[in-house]
Known about the structure:
Elements: H1 5-13, E1 17-20, E2 32-35, E3 39-43, E4 61-65, E5 72-74, E6 79-83, E7 87-90, E8 94-100, H2 102-105, E9 109-110, E10 117-118, E11 123-124, E12 127-132, E13 138-140, E14 145-153
Antiparallel strand pairs: 1-7, 2-14, 3-4, 5-13, 6-12, 7-11, 8-10, 8-14, 9-12
Amino acid sequence: MILSDKDIKRALLNRDITITPFNKKYIQPASIDLHIDKHFLVYNTNKNYVIDPKKPIDMMMEKITIDKNKPFVLHPGEFALGLIYETTGVSSSYVGRLEGKSSVGRMGLLIHVTAGFLDPGNSLKMTLELHNTANLPILIYYKMPIAQMAFEKISSPCENPYSKKRNNKYVGDIMPIASQMWKNFA
């Protein structure tokens, strides 16, 4: 069951949900608004011609950092990794589901392709898989509202929360990380 604003506030007080920095003005009826950070990764298409899921791709991507005066430009059809400004976490009894804001979607900006799930026990800056489906470039500004997180209580606390002990790949990320799919083949 998705938490209401009242239940989100209660879960924040109980530390079942953590959001840093937190501002109560961003709580919506059944979610909380989140903002985009300043760090991005983009594929260098001049030096690379194919993505091989069996090989590390970290070196195929270039880092881009923006600030309040310099937006990120995402051109039509382009893909970039970004991340949420707020560090968001859930206890072993909750999950989070990241969704785009309607206003962002109406510009043609997709914020995630598949990875909008916050696993029980994880706390991180959620990665955004940004894709411009519009036919014009989109400017993305530092700390722009870009997403909303809904929370759900799971049927019982999980036995094995998302953690480094389980060799989970994206525990506690605070920077965009290229796909670690290759580790599934190792």
